[in-house]
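Q: What would this chain look like folded?
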Amino acid sequence: MTYDTEPVTELIRRRKSWRSYRREHLADDLKDRIQGFIASLDAPPFGSMVRFRLVDSPVPEKARTPGTYGVIRGARHTLVGIVRPSPAAWEDFGYSFESVILFCTGLGLGTCWMGGTFSRDYYGRAVDLAPDEVIPAVSPVGYIAGKRSILDSLFVMGAGSRNRKPFAELFFRDDFSTSLSPAGAGAYGQTLEMVRLAPSASNRQPWRVVVTETGVHFFLSRTPGYRRLFSQVDLQCIDMGIAMFHFSSAASSLGITGGWRRQERPPGIGIPDALEYRVSWVPQS
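A: My prediction, written as structure tokens:
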């Protein structure tokens, strides 16, 4: 996939989480481009009802963006994601939200996935949230400040977001006993590297991927007790959706064709008790 003239692989490498912004409204043409992109989004892989709103925010004297508990400073706009919960809604949400995040990256704007440090009540009122809808995540959107705030720098250090697990810890050949190297992944080497670079809640990187002759199979390695921290949403399944978008958009940009399919379980793979099978990407012959 290409956003305007820039390949998605370059956007994935360039994207960073920013919490410090200049106190400026976006130019009208940028807002129009973001809203136009949102309106043009294709349905996510499992067809869930996902929608997005770009909300304008007043900024008080201390520059704290309302609804973010002081974590975001200066941002005058927030991208709010909304979904009706269903078994596959979380992956669909992560998939679609990340596509918008990367579009904003291509416009030279800062963003930051926020799944926990924001007020769902505040943004629920801002978007007229329906009773059967939830807000899994939001992101500030704006012109980044020349220097990170102290709090922003502390978040970066605390999350360890610049540190990613090694390739061989995340990706496997045929089963979970044989780790993959980038060179050994063949045509999937760059697409899997894009998965490795995907953002995730607390940088947990919960995806594990097995490449077989029949496809590329995605599994979830849950962090014990993490789901109880955020009972309204399944943040680690949202992380899986982000990884799915990185994989399929990179594959598309490289001319590798295929599609998503959820099976009862992928054939021939012994699944450790600690992992959950989520979805497979099946290549087209």
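The domain at 167-283 is CATH 3.40.109.10 (NADH Oxidase).
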